TrEMBL record:
Residues 153-177 form the Ice-binding protein C-terminal domain. This is PEP-CTERM sorting domain-containing protein. Residues 1-19 form the signal peptide. The lineage of its organism: Bacteria, Pseudomonadati, Pseudomonadota, Betaproteobacteria, Burkholderiales. InterPro entries: EF_Hand_1_Ca_BS, Ice-binding_C.
Length: 180
């Protein structure tokens, strides 16, 4: 018969292994700066996304994204106070493969002070632009063969707490056996 401490530990570990939403951080480093005409090895964009593989096919798709942030801008579930329109129009990620996304944002186009916006198409370019009182500026980073991609899962605090609790129960059970 299994001891109660082993049953509790097994239940805690099983609970922490349940499927659910996952949070992943990503970064791309090294881009060709279009306006400067040169490769910038330290230029980077980064972000994170939260997804849940609802259909269980192993591919995370746009309909399964609950949050997508790129360079501090949220594209799913609200744009923020300074942004008029934003969206994540395409998204696909298979763990161990490339991340694919298309996102865009814009300030109010009828604002008398000017308009700003941007678009990111992974594997192609990230562009930000602004127009104001007859002036314009843009900043374009293009992917190259030297652009590096990194991605890592972010453990949820509850997962760490469950693991710590489970290890604590195992340690307590081991200590009681040594005393007796």
């Amino acid at each position: 018969m299994l001891k109660p401490s082993l049953l509790i530990a097994a239940a805690l570990l099983a609970g922490s292994a349940q499927a659910g939403s996952t949070l992943s951080q990503f970064s791309y480093t090294g881009f060709f700066h279009e306006e400067a005409g040169q490769f910038l090895p330290n230029a980077h964009i980064d972000g994170y996304f939260e997804t849940e593989d609802l259909n269980g096919n192993g591919v995370l798709e746009r309909s399964e994204v609950s949050s997508f942030v790129l360079n501090g801008q949220q594209y799913v579930g609200g744009c923020g106070p300074e942004v008029f329109l934003c969206g994540l129009f395409d998204f696909s990620y298979t763990p161990g493969a490339a991340l694919s996304f298309n996102s865009a944002w814009s300030t109010d186009p009828w604002n008398e002070a000017g308009v700003a916006g941007g678009e990111a198409l992974s594997g192609v370019e990230v562009k930000e632009y602004s127009y104001w009182m007859g002036n314009a500026a843009s900043y374009t980073l293009r992917w190259t063969g030297d652009t590096l991609f990194t991605i890592s899962p972010v453990p949820e605090p509850a997962t760490g707490a469950m693991l710590a609790l489970g290890l604590g129960v195992l340690a307590l059970g081991h200590r009681r056996r040594r005393i007796v």
